[in-house]
Amino acid sequence: MPATEHIPQYSAVGPAIILVEPQLGENIGMVARAMANFGLVELRLVNPRDGWPSEKARAAASRADHVIDAVKVFDDLASALADLNFVFATTARQRDGFKSVRGPVEAGRMLRARHDMGQRTGILFGRERFGLYNDEVGLADEIVTFPVDPDFSSLNIAQAALLMSYEWMKSGLEDETKTNFTGPEMKPASKEELHGLFAYLEGALEARGYFRPAPKKPKMVDNLRAVLTRAGFAEPELKVLRGIISSLDRFSPAMPRGDGSPGDDPRRLPAAAARARKAEAASRTHKVTGDDEDMPLGGKGTDND
Q: Which of 123, 178, 208, 242 has its CA 20 to 30 A from that of 50?
């Protein structure tokens, strides 16, 4: 089944995008891609310079083939607008005349409202080099312009189409701030867990002489707790922080991670190291040889031979 059969009729999916005398097939393709990103499918071309169809346009559309396949080509702008009820003309500069000028957010909402009333709407874009002539703007109902830097106000037609396509889709959302996916839901850390991290960190810093001079320790502890409390950590985040602190607490530059278990460093576990040394000394001092008597380490002294 052709891909275009999966696409709803354009009368049900928003305003038509009209490009007047587009010069580059690549730009037409990028406009088609921008439209597809935000659910628009009807693209109209008025006298494309290099003719139609265009393989360059199809390649630049990046699989927005349903838009490319449905392109309609017109000989003049009046014919391209004939069946539409309301049209916005995009321009970056002030024009003579009496037309209302809207920003993209307001324009998107107006297009949505007219669409919901069953009206056919369109958005008009000019040539890459100089946009629309005044008489072409005169065929539109109102003007839409973007809040750009006045010293660099020219937009590529694909960029302009992307902005308006986005505003069209956003205007139809129940919540304009809603996203297609969200971050993980994490359980907030309890005060008990947070206080446990405080205590663990304070102990690790105390062991390393961080709190100097000693009279300033209470204030330094207060500052640490203020920093850690402000973040509003979730339970998994506290576990990550505790793991980091634990790693720093157990390993040192002299015994870096990868050189063995923390237990292999006798400076970290002096009591265990002392017991290990005592056991090793005992094993060397006492050696049982069957029924014979114990003999000193190293065998008989040579002076007794």
A: 123
Whole-model pTM over 0.70: no
Nearest to 39 by CA among 61, 84, 8, 65: 8
Q: How far apart are CA 153 and CA 147, in angstroms?
A: 9
- Listed in sequence order, the residues at least 6 apart from 275 whose beta carbon sits closer than 8 Å to its beta carbon are none
Q: Nearest to residue 103, comparing CAs of 143, 134, 139, 133?
A: 143
DSSP letters, the chain, are --GGGGSPPGGGS-PEEEEES---HHHHHHHHHHHHHTT---EEEES-TT-SS-HHHHHHTTT-HHHHHT-EEESSHHHHHTT-SEEEEE-SS--SSS--EE-HHHHHHHHHHHHHTT--EEEEE-BTTTB--HHHHTTSSEEE-----TTS----HHHHHHHHHHHHHHHT-SSTT--SS-PPP-PBPPHHHHHHHHHHHHHHHHHTT-S-SGGGHHHHHHHHHHHHHHT--BHHHHHHHHHHHHHHHH-BTTB-TTSS-GGG-TTT-HHHHHHHHHHHHHHHH----TTSPP--TTSS-GGG-
Residue 300 CA to residue 241 CA, distance in Å, equals: 59
Residue that is written with structure tokens 């304009």 in the block: 176
Model confidence pLDDT, tens digit, residues 114-166: 999 999 999 999 998 889 999 999 999 999 999 988 888 888 999 999 999 99
